[in-house]
Batch of 3 targets.
Target 1
Amino acid sequence: FEALMRWNHPERGVLAPGAFLQVAEASGAMEALDWQVFEQSMRMIPQLLEPGQYVNLNLSPRHFRSDDLDERFLALI
């Protein structure tokens, strides 16, 4: 599986990541959005995965500026 974000826009309907990720990166909102995806993915993994399956999570490059990325991500897992 791959955890991908979608935006349910009130006028344009469901938008794929390519339609809004550049704006999220440029505005600084990407990290907060990523953490929402990470948290929701961790809640859903026990229901979705069978042995031998896995989930890919994408990280914004901005996360690597954070001194506590590793600790925060490990705590989430």
Note: Strands lie at 7-9, 13-15.
Target 2
Amino acid sequence: MTGAIFTGEVLENKRVFSIPNFIIIGVQKGGTTSLYNYLIQHPKVAPALQKEVQFFSLNFDKGRDWYFSQFPRVADGKELLTGEASPYYIFHPHVAKRIHQFFPDVKLIALLREPVARAISHYFYYLKIGFESLSFEDAIALESSRLRGEIEKMLEDESYCSYNHRHYTYLTRGIYADQLPEWFKYFSREQLLILNSDDLYKDTVGTMNQVLNFLELPHFQLETYPKYNAGEYKKVSPVIEEKLREFFRPHNQRLAALLGTDFGWD
């Protein structure tokens, strides 16, 4: 199996750990937790210590040894894959370059969710856990002012972590046509599997087979595929929802042109 045997790095304490063969880079509220949990139940996949290592986005200052220590010990003679899923990666301006510097041959997976549904889910989840206090309408209206100058600060200072960029980006995170070109600068199209997250739930077995083929893993089917981190939220007004659809329509069209695939979101 190509690239399947754990590849190790010798750390300062002389322990040898595997390095990731795959990284699920996003998107937030797009099904990454479900996909990751399905994958790590495969007999040829070993999980990281935690799903969201967030090394290349939030923990880069901890260094490579810390990152390698998040993955399982090398197992002699066992052909296993390992990887992580940090959905902030796709959106963070420095992550594509950082991953390429570490692992230029790694395989990347992006689950893209219909952006209106993603934005609504993002908002109500953050309202539930206390990261947001504004109404949905106000949060959307104030997004640009909350973000003003934040990306510029991140680009000028790689150590700068922007709370607002991480949390208050309900609309911006759904503009995938602005995010993917940065990844295409560093990785070939063959290294990046881009999926419509709706397909993960509408045709779970078929979508998982796509993922397994991409990772060169034998097909393996679970008895059940529960949804992880699924939330039930109240509906927003049809007026607000239509305004969001109008906002995202040109960006979805740009995405379709970029990928040569129309997800049918409009």
Note: The CA atoms of residues 22 and 107 lie 5 Å apart.
Target 3
Amino acid sequence: MDKKDQIILQQLDVIRSMTENNIKRMGSDFWGTPFEGVGKVPTPAAPAPEKNAPPTADSKSGDAVPEKTEELPPPEKIEDLLSELDSYIGLQVVKDEVHDLINMVQVYKLRQQHDLPTTDMSLHMVFTGNPGTGKTMMARMMARIYRSLGILSKGQLVEVDRSGLVAGYVGQTALKTQKVIEKAMGGVLFIDEAYALNGRSENDFGQEAIDTILKAMEDHRDDLVVIVAGYTELMDRFIHSNPGLESRFNRFLHFEDYSLDEMLAIFDMQCKKGCYEVDEETRGMVRDFIQEENVSSVSFGNARGVRNLFEHILVAQNNRLAKLETVTRDDLMTITPDDVLRARGKLDE
């Protein structure tokens, strides 16, 4: 291996490392507010205890000191959460519904404080829409909002689907589902493609999971919120297949597909989070790329499809940079028209 090959390999390692770090820093909410951790120095983690180390003893009594329970951060300010919510790309109808819900909860709590009668208020929700339209992101936001309003004690999101709730033998499903519910206590249990819980056969245990969840919703109505999600028609059929589900889920939020302009804005946000730059020519080509691939919103996946295209473009950029003898900071930050063309398969490597 000559010196030039060694330089290329070294540059390739640097590119891969920086790209991996950038992608990790983008977070799961890939169309929300820009990543705020860029440039911040991480707090050093406390050293892990040695394996098989004895429990820490109290210096005076010699007794083992009980482990401290994890302290939760204080609830976020509702004003900050609303500002973040409003910054999300698209989802205007959903945003309006969430604003209405927040107002309803705040008035409900005020009536309680003034000893005025209140009607039963169900906070469980049904999210409908195609993949990649922000349902999981909004479920996470609702958990944070409910904690801010004092509805939930912790505000975490626990996400599952049928496989995380249903077991293969009689009696096991209830135990498996109960463990998930315990993990979600104080927060939101988010069940994706919830209609899959409907019995597929006489020996199916999905109904056992549904019954366990309905009981938990009744027993822990003060500190557990359940959100079910999936395709619109299937979710409508699922909710109306069971009187218990109908009575507990009466709030529906529909997530529309993203428009072409909104998906391009999501791409722009991806670039901003990852410290990538595109000029207007490149951006126009990205728009064409999205339009070309988005034949079906279901198969393309809305924001997920945009993220996949973004990652394909980064692969093309990496392959281009790997052939350079030297790579500058500007090179690492720039996405070129050729990168987009290669990602589209319209230009040979």
Note: The CA atoms of residues 176 and 319 lie 46 Å apart.
